[in-house]
């Protein structure tokens, strides 16, 4: 297929989908087949500036739009997403590789945030204290910031954009979105549906690109806040550059999540949960479970874990019954394979080798099967690096306290889990573990949108997380007003030169 016959991904500027004039393009490739699905532009500086200018102009009227009108747009939007979820999932699978059921889950978890945005009338309420002094009231307003921006990763091209722009727009801001250049198609379809739901022109804009687009978002004086999800390297760059330019920033970054298995845990349920969390989405989740610590007698479960893992089916994401699809790119496949090789070289025991699997009909796909290492130590690359592939490292500990020490010594603090029947052990774990999101018999403890994503330590920069209550605070400026109204016949009294109100 020639480049001229491949559809081009458009920019969204001031409510119009426009063809970029860029001379730099990248192919969007199906990772299961290497088929070129589309080509995406790296927007020019002029195009990116136009998107920000459009958002700035739209903010003048959008910020004054009644909160009920904003809310009704998101009621319509959630309906449109539900009606088109099969189409959205198919697009996502084609460009990202995850299985169709997992792709639907990706869309659905984003849909939950859209549903949360419909409640903005209750979420964006200020506070009032009546008569704080003689005839004086104090109250707060939660007002929108202006133009906000989001930079999203390849692994959740539906969910993470939906973490960002619905809540930003619902709170009265306008938005510039930069989706991953690796898989922007489902994101753009979601943007089309947002316009169909009634998002006015200029309120939502989309640019595409790489480093230049990221830096423009960090530097542009008209952008007031930046949301980011992605790698630690890029997230640290975004946070430092954006905050140095006076912007608010929230950056959700790398992870190395651990699960502890105590001997009293329900064995079959635990093994099923471990497999799903470790190998689902081919391990390409920031909340994946790449490390399991077996405590005491639970160490005898390793053979059962290996045998059950062998039953997982590797195939194209559209094939029925598939458990593990391809990783996103040839470069990602090479990186995963090199880290597996490093584990062998550094002394870990390769219990199950998933390299170079045979996948009939998908000989050119970026496939790596589930891989398990035992005898892993904290000094090994397979432990220290975020692999972002279906590779599970199994460690051992003599006690719960020893396992907690291993986790707390890791610099990342995104998510963790404990499998046990003991309430006392669970309470001890949740109190002593230094990780933002904790699961008890739940392997991927991503909170529902009533709460905020709360990764910690090296996994997060910025005080406030995406969605939930925290993001309403992130996307708004609190204005505190103290007022007094005098009756016409009040005795004003003498001049007061103190700082107190009487």
UniProtKB/TrEMBL annotation:
Q: Does the record bear Metal-binding in its keywords?
A: no
InterPro entries, A to Z: Ald_DH/histidinol_DH, Ald_DH_C, Ald_DH_N, Aldehyde_DH_dom, MeMal-semiAld_DH
* Alphabetical list of CDD domains matching this protein: ALDH_F6_MMSDH
Name a GO molecular-function annotation: methylmalonate-semialdehyde dehydrogenase (acylating, NAD) activity
GO terms, biological process: L-valine catabolic process; thymine catabolic process
Keyword list (alphabetical) reads: NAD, Oxidoreductase
Q: Which Pfam families match?
A: Aldedh
Q: What is its EC number?
A: 1.2.1.27
- Per UniProt, residues of the Aldehyde dehydrogenase domain are 17-481
Q: Which family does it belong to?
A: Belongs to the aldehyde dehydrogenase family.
The protein's name in its UniProt record? methylmalonate-semialdehyde dehydrogenase (CoA acylating)
**Organism in which the protein naturally occurs:** Pseudomonas umsongensis
């Amino acid at each position: 297929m020639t480049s001229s016959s491949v559809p081009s991904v458009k920019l969204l500027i001031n409510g119009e989908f426009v063809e970029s004039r860029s001379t730099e393009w990248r192919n969007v490739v199906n990772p299961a087949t290497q088929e070129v699905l589309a080509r995406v532009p790296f927007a020019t500086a002029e195009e990116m500036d136009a998107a920000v200018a459009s958002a700035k102009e739209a903010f003048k009227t959008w910020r004054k739009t009644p909160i009920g009108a904003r809310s009704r747009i998101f009621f319509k939007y959630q309906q449109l997403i539900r009606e088109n979820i099969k189409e959205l999932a198919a697009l996502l699978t084609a460009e990202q590789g995850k299985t169709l059921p997992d792709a639907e889950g990706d869309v659905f978890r984003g849909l939950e945030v859209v549903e949360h945005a419909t409640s903005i009338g209750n979420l964006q309420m200020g506070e009032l204290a009546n008569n704080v002094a003689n005839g004086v009231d104090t109250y707060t307003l939660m007002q929108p910031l202006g133009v906000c921006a989001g930079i999203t990763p390849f692994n959740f091209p539906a969910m993470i954009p939906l973490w960002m722009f619905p809540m930003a727009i619902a709170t009265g801001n306008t938005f510039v979105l930069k989706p991953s250049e690796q898989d922007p198609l489902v994101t753009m379809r979601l943007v089309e549906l947002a316009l169909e739901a009634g998002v006015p022109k200029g309120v939502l804009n989309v640019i595409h690109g790489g480093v230049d687009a990221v830096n423009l978002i960090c530097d542009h004086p008209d952008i007031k806040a930046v949301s980011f999800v992605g790698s630690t390297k890029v997230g640290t760059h975004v946070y430092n550059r954006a905050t140095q330019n006076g912007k608010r920033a929230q950056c959700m970054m790398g992870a190395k999540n651990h699960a502890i298995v105590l001997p009293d845990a329900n064995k079959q349920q635990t093994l099923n949960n471990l497999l799903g969390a470790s190998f689902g989405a081919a391990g390409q989740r920031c909340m994946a479970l790449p490390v399991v610590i077996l405590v005491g007698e639970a160490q005898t479960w390793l053979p059962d874990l290996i045998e059950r893992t062998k039953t997982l089916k590797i195939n194209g994401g559209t094939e029925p019954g598939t458990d593990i699809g391809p990783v996103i790119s040839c470069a990602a496949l090479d990186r995963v394979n090199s880290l597996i090789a490093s584990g062998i070289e550094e002394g870990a025991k390769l219990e199950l080798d998933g390299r170079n699997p045979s996948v009939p009909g998908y000989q050119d796909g970026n496939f790596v099967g589930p891989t398990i290492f035992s005898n892993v130590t904290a000094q090994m690359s397979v432990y220290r690096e975020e692999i972002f592939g279906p590779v599970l490292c199994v460690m051992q500990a003599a006690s719960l306290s020893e396992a907690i020490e291993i986790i707390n010594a890791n610099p990342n603090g995104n998510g963790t889990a404990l499998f046990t029947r003991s309430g006392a052990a669970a309470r001890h774990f949740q109190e002593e573990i230094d990780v933002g999101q904790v699961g008890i018999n739940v392997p991927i403890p991503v909170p529902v949108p009533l709460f905020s994503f709360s990764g910690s330590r090296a996994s997060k920069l910025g005080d406030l997380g995406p969605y939930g209550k925290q993001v309403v605070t992130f996307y708004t400026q609190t204005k505190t007003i103290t007022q007094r109204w005098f009756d016409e016949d009040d005795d004003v009294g003498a001049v007061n030169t103190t700082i107190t109100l009487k």
